[in-house]
Write a sequence for this structure.
């Protein structure tokens, strides 16, 4: 198995104990033409890695906020080819910030796994998280990603068994994404003590960084989880900010509002002492 992607490995190495900030946005929302600028603004606001959502018509793990963003992007005609073009455009001005694509198997299967891996590598993608590719059924895809220098990133959940965690440790690269609660993105009732216990279990078997997402909606919840997590992933609340600002004042203002809000989370994380 290949080593972790260079950009992703470098990010976690340089943080030196600080928790990474990983915002999730949907490619093409609020506009396909503004997505690269939005990505650059988030980096300027403190994002260490960008998770870029691939719009899909049946997103089983996404709550209503991200579903709406995907629907808007699909209505604008955004598909996987467009997402890769967005990454390539972003790479014209940013060669350092890792970009992880997050989505579902269907668009990749339609393109073909080999074609997708080749085109993703050419565009400048660093990692791929496919919600419905289970580790047990994606060995060939994981191998192809590794050979192209891309990381296969997988989800763990509160229901994941210790045996599954051990199995994942053998193939996961980049970072592991721990889903902090049962349910879809944006759900509430975040139990930080439960997250702490699960992270301790995960780290018995997994040595790469562990990011935590689902349910992080403000500086306080981000700070709480940052005591133990290597990264916090924030999607639904950020997309809410984009959605509201775009509706009120247009896409350009949405970029400014998103960057301002993420900047407040970044500043909050800088104050955290790891537990």
């Amino acid at each position: 198995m290949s080593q972790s992607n260079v950009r992703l490995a470098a990010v976690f190495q340089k943080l030196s104990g600080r928790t990474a900030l990983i915002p999730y946005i949907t490619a093409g929302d609020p506009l396909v033409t503004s997505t690269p600028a939005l990505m650059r603004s988030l980096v300027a606001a403190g994002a260490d890695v960008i998770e870029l959502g691939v719009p899909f018509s049946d997103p089983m793990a996404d709550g209503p906020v991200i579903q709406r963003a995907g629907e808007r992007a699909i209505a604008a005609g955004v598909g996987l080819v467009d997402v890769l073009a967005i990454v390539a455009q972003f790479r014209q001005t940013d060669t350092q910030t890792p970009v992880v694509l997050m989505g579902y198997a269907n668009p990749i299967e339609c393109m073909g796994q080999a074609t997708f891996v080749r085109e993703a590598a050419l565009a400048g993608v660093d990692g791929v998280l496919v919600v419905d590719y289970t580790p047990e059924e994606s060995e060939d895809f994981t191998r192809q990603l590794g050979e192209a220098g891309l990381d296969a990133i997988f989800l763990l959940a509160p229901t994941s068994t210790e045996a599954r965690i051990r199995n994942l440790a053998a193939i996961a690269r980049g970072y592991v994404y721990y889903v902090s609660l049962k349910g879809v993105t944006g759900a509430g009732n975040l139990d930080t003590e439960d997250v702490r216990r699960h992270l301790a279990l995960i780290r018995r078997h997994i040595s790469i960084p562990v990011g935590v997402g689902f349910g992080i909606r403000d500086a306080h919840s981000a700070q709480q989880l940052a005591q133990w997590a290597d990264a916090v992933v924030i999607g639904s609340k950020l997309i809410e900010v984009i959605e509201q600002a775009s509706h009120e004042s247009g896409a350009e203002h949405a970029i400014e509002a998103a960057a301002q809000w993420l900047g407040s989370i970044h500043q909050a994380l800088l104050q955290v002492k790891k537990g």
About this structure: The longest helix spans residues 251-270.
